[in-house]
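> call design_seq(struct)
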């Protein structure tokens, strides 16, 4: 089992530092992506493009399960991220493409979090539209220098285990 967790740090889950990689036979199969408040669509998409997708392509999953938390939405009152439904749609499309390449399309999204009802409903709808093939995915542009620095450090933390 490969676990990839992106989360605001140091907010949630209280564990999940970039240096926590699993143990024993599972060493390297826990990928924590702790992100500072303010990460936006372009930061997330760049992170997934540079790290999550290449690791998934190397791992070649047989099934993809996504804990679809929308608490990274800019409107969420509990977290400090700046995602929008456009960014969530792009991430969902990236997960769908991984599932199509490696697991015959076997992909399940389970609704997990999100505490602004408008942000949650618009983001969940965007993902459903991507999966149904009725939503065009928009470009989110390049990430800023601060996000690129964070992404580079996360890549470095995974290089002992993955070709990223």
């Amino acid at each position: 089992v490969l676990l990839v967790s992106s989360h605001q740090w140091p907010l949630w889950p209280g564990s999940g530092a970039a240096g926590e990689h699993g143990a024993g036979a599972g060493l390297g199969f826990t990928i924590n992506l702790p992100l500072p408040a303010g990460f936006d669509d372009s930061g997330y998409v760049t992170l997934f493009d540079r790290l999550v997708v290449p690791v998934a392509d190397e791992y070649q999953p047989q099934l993809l399960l996504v804990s679809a938390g929308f608490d990274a939405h800019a409107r969420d009152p509990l977290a400090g991220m700046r995602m929008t439904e456009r960014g969530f749609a792009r991430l969902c499309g990236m997960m769908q493409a991984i599932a199509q390449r490696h697991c015959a399309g076997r992909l399940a999204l389970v609704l997990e979090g999100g505490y602004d009802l408008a942000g949650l409903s618009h983001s969940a709808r965007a993902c459903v539209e991507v999966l149904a093939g009725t939503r065009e995915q928009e470009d989110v542009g390049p990430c800023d220098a601060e996000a690129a620095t964070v992404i580079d450090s996360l890549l470095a933390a995974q290089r002992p285990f993955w070709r990223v």
